[in-house]
Specification:
By secondary structure, the chain is α+β, with helices and mostly antiparallel strands. The chain has two domains: about 5-165, 3-Layer(aba) Sandwich (Creatine Amidinohydrolase, Chain A, domain 1), CATH 3.40.350; about 180-290, Creatine Amidinohydrolase (Alpha-Beta Complex), CATH 3.90.230.10. The chain has helices spanning about 5-20, 45-50, 80-85, 90-95, 110-120, 130-140, 150, 155-165, 170-190, 200-210, 275-290; strands at about 20-25, 30-35, 40, 60-65, 70-75, 100-105, 125, 215, 220-225, 245-250, 250, 260-265. Strands 6-5-4-1-7 form a five-stranded mixed sheet, with helices on both faces. The protein has a three-stranded antiparallel sheet with strand order 9-10-12, with helices on one face. The protein is elongated and about 70 Å long.
Length: about 300
């Protein structure tokens, strides 16, 4: 997490943009692979992380702009949780680190929203992208899940986009850290790749670099000799002399900021003359585009 003052200021700026309304933020939950306690890598919702900074599952928050209140909803660890995962920082402590004073049990979220509905208040939310959050929202708001995309708040969306589009110096540092690690991932791939090696071995080395940095992969690695196939996550090919290897991979820091790089390199020691010519054309295009970039405000 950043310092709590950063999250307080972000929420204050958000409230100033909207001026009035009740805004619901849903965090993500754990997603089981094959049974409840064997889960995929947890990734918090990016907007929830931006405003509240707590990288824990099963949380929700409300910013009540008119009454100048921020409420966090979640449950403290049970004794079973502590036995399973060990004693950790309490939710109240995490909330304090994010500058949040009011923490209520998850069970209270429905009651708070129910009271708002009775008062004919519009509960504003962002478009959900996870199935479990779609079902949760539909149940909380008493609407059909199929209607959620139409009911999502456009002013809410615009306010978040406007705020998150402008990066602070601390955010730029995090992005630079993610990009630097991403560069290390790509260099590692180029260093170890050779004819006779499997794609999976290179993909594993890429993930090792990302994990050893203290973060993780920003997205599943695309490492393939079949770069003509978009988003090819198959890693079963063996590199051959004359192959080109496409590496689309990036690192994410522990604060959720990511790098995203795509590069192509020869499986052997050098490009063929045709490959070098094609590579140079793409490189020149990239450099020309980069040179044209400049701020618009």
């Amino acid at each position: 997490m950043f310092d709590k003052e950063i999250y307080i200021e972000r929420r204050k700026e958000f409230a100033a943009k909207l001026k009035s309304g009740l805004f619901l933020f849903l965090g993500n939950s754990e997603s089981p692979m094959n049974y409840a306690d064997n889960t995929y890598h947890f990734r918090q919702d990016s907007t929830f992380l931006y405003y509240f900074g707590i990288n824990s599952p099963n949380l929700a928050a409300i910013i009540d702009v008119e009454n100048d209140k921020t409420l966090l909803f979640g449950d403290e660890m049970s004794m079973d949780d502590i036995v399973w995962m060990g004693r950790q920082m309490t939710l109240k402590e995490k909330a304090s680190n994010a500058g949040i004073e009011v923490v209520q049990p998850s069970s209270q979220l429905s009651a708070v929203l129910g009271d708002a509905i009775k008062q004919s208040l519009t509960i504003q939310f962002l478009p959900p992208y996870r199935g479990e959050n779609k079902l949760k929202l539909a149940e909380l708001l008493h609407v059909d899940a199929a209607q959620l995309s139409q009911l999502a708040s456009v002013p809410f969306i615009k306010a978040v986009v406007a705020q998150r589009s402008i990066k602070s110096d601390l955010e730029i540092q995090e992005i630079n850290k993610a990009v630097s690690t991403s560069v290390d991932m790509h260099i590692r791939a180029m260093q170890i790749a050779k004819p006779g090696m499997s794609e999976s071995k290179i993909a594993a080395a890429i993930q090792e670099v990302a994990k050893s940095s203290g973060g993780n992969l920003a997205y599943p690695v695309i490492l393939t000799v079949n770069g003509q196939i978009l988003h090819n996550h198959f890693h079963g090919n063996i590199l051959k002399e004359g192959d080109l290897v496409l590496n689309d991979s990036g690192a994410e820091t522990d604060r959720g900021y990511a790098g995203d790089l795509t590069r192509t390199f020869p499986a052997g020691k050098q490009f063929t003359s045709l490959q070098k010519e094609m590579y140079s054309i793409v490189l020149d295009s990239y450099q020309s585009a980069a040179n044209l970039m400049k701020p618009v405000f």
